[in-house]
Sequence to fold (465 residues):
Amino acid sequence: MWFITGASSGLGLEMVRLLAARGVPVCASGRRGPGDLPDDFPNIPYHACDLADPMAVTKLADWAMGQGPLRAVVLNAGAGFFRPLAQETPDAIARVLAINLDANIALAHRLCPVLSGGRLGLIGSVAHKGAAGMPVYAASKSALDGFGRALAEEWRGTVKLRVLHPGPVATGMATRAGRTPDFADRVFLPPRQTAAALLAALNAESGADRQTVSFLRVGLHRVLKGAA
Amino acid sequence: MKVLVTGGASGLGAALVAACRARGDEVCAIDLDPAERSWAHDLGNTDPAAWAALADWLATQGPFDLVILSAGISATGRFETIPLAQHQNVTAVNLAGPIRLVHLLESGHLLRAGGRLICIASLSCFTGYPGAASYAASKDGLAGFARSLRRPMRKRGITVQLACPGPMDTPHATRYAPDGASTKGRLAPDRAAQAILNARSFTIIPGAGPKLAAVLGRLAPQTLTRLMGRVLFSKLK
Fold:
């Protein structure tokens, strides 16, 4: 059984669709209620959860463990705002860090006993190197990167852990986050192909603990494996 | 010159406070323990009243020409054996707190144009740090934050710098190093403080050994993290 967070939209949704289409057993969580999911959302176990709420995160981990033996977990959910620091609010800062970092630490902590022999994917962002337009989001993704690199070494031989940094992807997240769409959006990566490249990177037997899944990587995957 | 130092009561923070006072700066400090010209505040605390009180105090002391974010805690051991609350406290004190403090300084215009903001991260940003996963997360996060602020702040005449010190001869290092670890080769905090205050580059790595480690970490990050796992993590178990 695969378990994917942040599956109600964007890359998470595409990953769930791809896995379901391949007949892989998968369960998922997302911010949206079951009634607000896209019409073509695959028929899989789904748990709505606000990852900024620590109690809900614990419940989510227990729910996922109850869905069957977990073979792979993809902590993909993320939130953020495209705006300078002065326009942030303390509550928004706390929320972004809670969802992008603390919830993932909590899920890894609680799921650890059942992950043995399996895989854990942490979905970061190319913004982890620093992004002037979204300092809090970038900080949260850098933090996830540091967390993943440390834990990948701690768990080597037990759990195959990878931090994957996709982007920029045309999921609409950037626009929702407050970025004005411009010419750049037309060259952003297609979500489905990026999701396919992420799954391939996670499934691969060998590969670095940290990988960037950007234009070159997604393009190569598309050429070698065909459009997913 | 007006200086604000977080974590000014011990270790590198105390050394930075002493070095600034020695050159005639007016230094304010934030730490858990109140001391002379300092404010008692837990950066991991999310209570709005505590932050409002801190904001009021900063408004009476600022604006500042130099702000140094030095406060930090750690939690070492196997990730899964450390209680979750401890991990969350590390990310709160080392990352959420500093971001909120810079936000507070920004919205209150408490950082003067022509001033400097120095974020104290860790050499772990280059080497990785198995055995301190949440600490590594918080310090990489702070580094990403500093890199993101660099350009927008420079436009307003504020220099942002990122210091990544290696092991130092401080209470912090002694508290979190493996039992019986040698203190040889650890940098003296007053020397690290001097190097940080004198540096003009964006990334500051005090000491020759840590500089070499950072270069290796840039060239072969995963190899160095595996080495860290061998020499550090295996001793923490």
